[in-house]
Amino acid sequence: MTTAREDFLLYPAIDLVDGRAVRLLHGQFDQLLTSEQDDALERAAAVWRAGSRALHVIDLDAARTGTPDDPNRALVARIAADKPAGALLQVGGGLRSAEAVDRLIADGVDRVLIGTMAFRDRDLLAALLQRHGSRISVAIDSRERSVRISGWVEDAGIPVERAARDLADFGVGHLLVTGIDRDGTLAGPDLELLAAVLEAVDGGSGVIAAGGVTTAGDVRAVRALGCAGAVVGRALLDDPSLLRELLDAAA
């Protein structure tokens, strides 16, 4: 039986495409969701002003190409430089080399999200964990309970629960679990998927929920399951004023 975690964090999300803050629907690059408030630096500043203790940034261009590059790379460095003391900046997207990970950490990123690399090069993952410890986390992106990699376009052929258990046993401190079919839909999180992952890791890793988290009720639901946090993106792109309500639900 799980209980709500006292260290639960809400992660407002900023996804970057060509230097703009955007969202994707179902992870499809041809279904780009934008708003007039696409200034990534201003969106990050607004998250901190609202009192958030964490921010989640994904370089979607790098996730597709495998190479972090400007303008997104420079934006991430600026966001890291401007974050308040004690705040947690979590960044991912296209990190498939030790050099890319080291560069982000050198730029002030607190936690780095690895996806494809973790499933293709376990030796490199081990080396990064030895070097950076809890600052390394792994993204498990799920479609129909199978792990997707390479910007969600490739099926790795690994059941999500098995991947989560193996990574927890390997010593990964946090797993970001995204239900791709819920991502950007405002349809609520996949609670069955999250419950299965939580059971698989059995406390071995903190599980951060992503995909469909929209309302204060969604935040409370994933916290009650035992998740360590929740990422919210599309809902805040549509209505940034929701942030305060969601932060209250996470407190």
Shape: globular
Report the CATH topology name. TIM Barrel
State the name of the first-level CATH class. Answer: Alpha Beta
The CATH superfamily label reads Aldolase class I
- CATH architectural name: Alpha-Beta Barrel
Structural Rg:
16 Å
Intertermini distance: 21 Å
* Order of strands across the main sheet: 1-4-5-6-7-10-11-12
The residue fraction in helices comes out at 25-40%
Major sheet: 8 strands, parallel, barrel
User: How many DSSP H or I helices?
Assistant: 11
SSE sequence, one letter per element:
EEEHEHHEHEHHEEEHEHEHEHH
Low-confidence stretches: none
Strand content: 25-35%
| Class inferred from helices and paired strands | alpha/beta
Quick check: average pLDDT?
Answer: 90
Count of beta strands: 12
Kindly give the count of domains: 1
Descriptive overview:
With 251 residues, the protein is α/β, with parallel strands linked by helices. The chain has one domain: TIM Barrel (Alpha-Beta Barrel), CATH 3.20.20. It is 39% helix and 27% strand. The chain is built from 11 helices and 12 strands. It has helices spanning 40-49, 60-65, 72-82, 98-106, 116-120, 122-132, 160-170, 191-201, 216-225, 234-238, 243-250, and strands spanning 9-17, 20-25, 28-33, 54-59, 88-92, 111-114, 136-143, 146-149, 154-159, 174-179, 206-210, 229-232. Strands 1-4-5-6-7-10-11-12 form an 8-stranded parallel barrel, surrounded by 8 helices. A hairpin with a 2-residue loop joins strand 1 and strand 2. Helix 1 runs parallel beside helix 3, helix 7 (160-170) runs parallel beside helix 8 (191-201) and helix 9 packs parallel to helix 11. The longest helix has 11 residues, at 72-82.
